[in-house]
Write a structure and sequence with these properties.
alpha+beta, six-stranded antiparallel β-sheet, 4 helices, 29% strand
Amino acid sequence: MMHASDPNSFQARYPSAFRSAVEARHAVADFALDCGFDLADTGDIALAVGEACNNAAEHGHSDGGQILLRCSFDGVDLGVTVADSGRGFDVRHVDRARGDHGKSNRGLGIFLMQTLMDSVEYDGSGTGTTVRLVKRRRRE
């Protein structure tokens, strides 16, 4: 379910389930294209958002829970926030995943998000986890 407030932002809620990642990826890809991102960057953004949603479904799942997706574009930076209200995971160990991608299957999504986006921030201080992804639009 999507709620449009203006052409430079949107917000949507999805059930806390892996299938929601597909819907969220498509919604963010459409938004990125509307904001003038090229196909390559749009693909990167969609993949990173899919990984964030998969993490929210896996680590933040709660019965009846939801994943909140917020997107905004200021003319240069596209920001995407993925938030859940589940049990989360320890965000202090997130950077450790970057160097561990060859040794296990854990943390690969985090590594991909960090590789594909210009900025990735995590906040686990409240209920659940919030991931903020930023992609800067390249000049033509």
